[in-house]
Amino acid sequence: MNTKAAIYCRLSEEDKNKKSVTDESYSIQNQKSMLIKYAEEHGWEIYDIYSDDDYTGADRSRPAFKRLLNDAEQHKFDIILCKTQSRFTRELELVEKYIHGLFPIWGIRFISVVDNTDSSDKGNKKSRQINGLINEWYLEDMSENIRSVLTNRRQNGLHIGSFALYGYKKDPEHKGHLIIDEEAASIVREIFTLFAQGYGKTAIARILNEKGIPNPTEYKRLCGLRYKPPASANSTLWSYSTISDMLTNEIYIGNMVQGKYGSISYKTKQNKPRPQSEWYIVKETHEPIIEYELWDTVQKLISQRAKPFKSGTVGIFAGKARCSFCASSMRSVQSHGRQYLKCSRRHLSKDLCIGAFISVEKLEELVLNELSRLSDLYLDKDILYQKLVLHNDLQTKREHLSSSIALYKKKSAEYSKAIRNLYIDKTKGILSEIDFTNMAANFSDERIRTEKLISEYTEQLSMLREKIESSDERHKLIEQYTTPAHLTHELVDILIDHINIGRRISGTKDVPIEIHWNF
């Protein structure tokens, strides 16, 4: 039976070399040629070529990479062939997970040609771990360098985003500068003017929708501009939130505002909101669309209309309540001191949706009644109480585990520092290649061992904490989840996936709802 090899190639954004955005990178072509020749020389049949162009080695969502792993698990081939280990991944965690962990279980041999990595060679393992660690450092250092450059550009008021704000476009003559897109800017001025004249945000959205004016995303798509694909299928409609965001964006008065979101880690593309004190705001960097007088009028009106709901009821069903007729999320409104939920699309366009509507008080009552009914029907609370037993030595065990984790974290950091220092000594010529490999391998083994212990102890500590907390508050916890007196957003988030809400049945006070529980 012929040995089958899968070829994997990757080119990252920083080292691409293309004729145009649609051309395949020459580097990818070179990788393919090298690996095809290598496979032919060894008499291996090529099963498939997997290629990811313009993806970093830290991106776990690479489409061809994911397909490769799925096919490897099904053992559709025998060997994975790469130019270097870093083409497969730059993360030490994935080296351990796949090359040293799952691939041997799946019967897959991993080979990278240039750096002589071969998972069938047991003596080669330490070199692979060292390569993985060095690649991890490369990712971290590159991330810090990029972050430093971007921070400097933000501080100098240069626009660094992939997409220009609606009403503006990127200046082709001056990188980082915005110029006015007059067609879109006229709509921005209309929105600010309408709000200053007393129109609400939903009313403004309805006016624009009835005129057939495409919203910012649809406008960019129609004009062939770069845009972020919408999360909702109703991508052409203006909405309350879109108008709200525009009315408070200082970019429209010529100030560059950036850094509202920051990345969680260099290993993920996920972002989180940053406090306003950490935003980068530079005054008068480009031509304003909105005059200061109109801007000030709008901000005063927004401030006057911002009347927060009473504490204790705000947002308990946030992100959970959906309209039964159009499936859109429902929005909180207040009238005569009471809080209601209504379909967010009801007033955006004629005949768009007949609109769901319910008071928060009524919805809370309906959910509590249903929760109580299910609790009485399915749960035996006496048995639950008996199962939650607190052991006297749990606190002592928790303290011991916490101390052990702290100790091993310190040791792991010392091993990493030692390997880094060895690497520096090697580059300076103080250490030979053989001495570096042997010494670094020992430190690497110890580091991996300590990290496994940290992982095991952390998992034990987490389970222990849960047991302590559930035991300490066993009666209160059971009552909280089975027969609560009131709902909180945290409780709703744990118990409920979503709630479909209709309109009041004519001639009655009943509002039909459909609760989709998380259990």
Description:
With 519 residues, this protein is α/β, with parallel strands linked by helices. 48% of the residues lie in helices and 14% in strands. The strands form 6 sheets. It has a 5-stranded mixed beta sheet with strand order 2-1-3-4-5, sandwiched between helices. It has a 3-stranded mixed beta sheet with strand order 12-16-17. The model is unreliable at 16-23, 308-314 and 387-392 (pLDDT under 50).
Write a brief structural summary:
It is built from 16 helices and 17 strands.
Which key features would you list for this structure?
519 residues; alpha/beta; five-stranded mixed sheet; three-stranded mixed sheet; 16 helices; globular
Tell me how many strands there are: 17
The secondary-structure class comes to alpha/beta
First and last CA, distance: 49 Å
Radius of gyration: 30 Å
Number of helices: 16
* Sheet with the most strands: spatial strand order: 2-1-3-4-5
Beta-strand percentage range: 5-15%
Mean of the pLDDT scores? 79
Could you give a short account of the major beta sheet?
A: 5 strands, mixed
SSE inventory with pairings:
Blueprint: E1 4-11, H1 26-41, E2 45-53, H2 63-73, E3 79-82, H3 85-88, H4 92-106, E4 109-112, E5 117-118, H5 125-155, E6 168-170, E7 178-180, H6 182-196, H7 201-210, H8 216-223, H9 240-247, E8 256-258, E9 261-263, E10 271-273, E11 280-282, H10 292-305, E12 321-323, E13 330-335, E14 338-343, E15 357-359, H11 360-378, H12 381-387, H13 394-427, H14 433-472, H15 474-482, H16 489-495, E16 496-501, E17 513-517
Parallel strand pairs: 1-2, 1-3, 3-4, 12-16
Antiparallel strand pairs: 4-5, 6-7, 8-11, 9-10, 13-14, 14-15, 16-17
Helix pairs in contact: 4-5, 5-14, 6-10, 7-9, 13-14
